[in-house]
Amino acid sequence: MKTLIVNSGSSSIKYQLIDVTSFDVLQSGEAAQIGFPGSYIRSKSKTRMKHINVALPDHEAGIRMVLSGLLDPDIGVIKSLDEIGAVGHRIVHGGKYFDGPAIVDDDVLDKIKKLIKLAPLHNDAAAKGIEACMHQMQGIPQVVSFDTAFHMTIPPEHHTYALPYEYYTDYDVRKYGFHGISHDYVSRRVAALMGRRRESMRIVSCHLGNGGSICAIKKGKSFDTSMGFTPLDGIMMGTRCGSIDPAIIPFIMEEKDLTPQEMDAILNRESGLLGVSGISNDIREIDEARYSGNYRADLALKMYAESVRRYIGAFAFEMGGCDALTITAGIGQNSAMMRRMILEHMEGFGIVCDWEANANVGAKDCAISTEGSPIQVYVIHTNEEYIIAKDCERLCAKPEEIAFDKDPLKEPAKDFDTSKGIPFIEE
Ligand code: ADP
Fold it and tell me: Of these residues, 72, 124, 147, 391, which one is catalytic?
């Protein structure tokens, strides 16, 4: 079965057409600058790329160009839209309504729209992408996979805030958590690489990108996570502050005479690595400045590592131990320096790293701990599209179209081709 995976942002639509049986990415691309001057569509098949500058006033136009790229005589890999078995949409917020993927109907779409107030940019754009696909791909099922759904197993003692209880019952103020699709993938993947079943493991998963979160996964289920009611909470991030004393907020609002919107923008866009370093949200640029003796650059990197370490310790303690620690996303996959800052001097805690392996992480998933390390540490290349494609297959494929996964235990651990996704055990 071929699935079209769609990730609609406020001004872009990224897509991948995936053959679910082989997990080959047949075509991918992006409609960018939607609603702005200079909009374009870029498509990439295995052998070619095509870039077209075209007016994209809205998401309807964006989806129209994505579909015409798939059918394009030069670069397209399908002859008819009927070849697409399902469309999978990545949705940031599923609120309390969704603990797994769903096929879109009026009720599902209503709930996604209801949640716009909790994720204004993300859910609004996603709803527009879904509606455009429904108009232009009638008869093809639309599936939604939520970043929050994986975290619906977090128990009340971890998802309730110490606020008046009515905020929980009347306003749904609770920890939702995000990056669930990534944490789900990474934890399945590490279990497969270690030849273990995820249900028997305690995993701390670190998704360290521009946004970042840590997740405690106990027996295959999210048990706690660092992001909260919104993606602002938790570790320090590229431009987000992560957890801070909440009393700072009214104090600064009064001192600087700020509106709630202005304060919100500062916490989300002017804080984190950028706010402390005053240089960038990108650790590569901060690291460069640190080498020329910049104090704030050095401080920002130390604070980042400490904030991640704090959650690793807390979550391992919450689960009563930890069998595997995983690191993924832009910073996690690419920065040997940051991985070392986070993991150094942890031998007493059961993390014994192989620093040569850490320095040589490439495009493949691999362990960076020694064989005897009580807690195994893996760098995993996250693959959210894989989980969404599997959701589409599970909900929409005809039985004869479902390819049974190969037994991952028989795959040589370090030789998976991560560009194709990996087989893992269905639970
Ligand atoms: P997002 O949360 O936007 O998906 P990513 O997972 O792509 O973010 O992570 C982006 C961040 O990853 C960058 O801001 C940078 O700090 C870091 N990063 C990306 N590539 C590298 C690299 N080659 N070396 C070190 N850090 C990198």
Answer: 147
